[in-house]
Amino acid sequence: MCTPRYDITLDRFMRVAHPLPRRRGNHTFVNALPWMCRAGAPWRGLPECYGKWVTVYRRFDRWSGDGAMEHLLMAARTRGIPPGRRPSRSA
């Protein structure tokens, strides 16, 4: 089950996407990361709405090895984008 409540909006994603390797599906991949962190599930437990688990795992492994994950997290941190949260709406 996907939880759009925790997904990173496309607008926010575009603000941090510049250091990433250009690949189709980057936004979906980045949204899978908070789900994995929150769920603590094995990769095979990733909901299909985030893509095939093996594809997400391989991208995570590749980006971790070549520094892209570090660049992504640093860009999110410097732009004040907390991982896995959307701003709350006031009633």
Using brief descriptors, characterize the structure shown.
51% helix, 0% strand, 91 residues, mainly alpha
Task: Characterize the structure shown.
The chain is mainly alpha-helical and 91 residues long. It is built from 4 helices and no strands. It has helices at 10-16, 26-39, 53-66, 68-78. The longest helix is centred in the middle third of the chain and has 14 residues, at 26-39. It is globular. The model has no long low-confidence stretch (mean pLDDT 79).
Beta-strand share of residues? under 5%
The first-to-last residue Cα distance is: 27 Å
Radius of gyration: 13 Å
Number of contiguous helices:
4
The portion of residues assigned to helices is 40-55%
Architecture blueprint of SSEs:
Layout: H1 10-16, H2 26-39, H3 53-66, H4 68-78
How do you describe this structure in short?
This protein is mostly helical and 91 residues long.
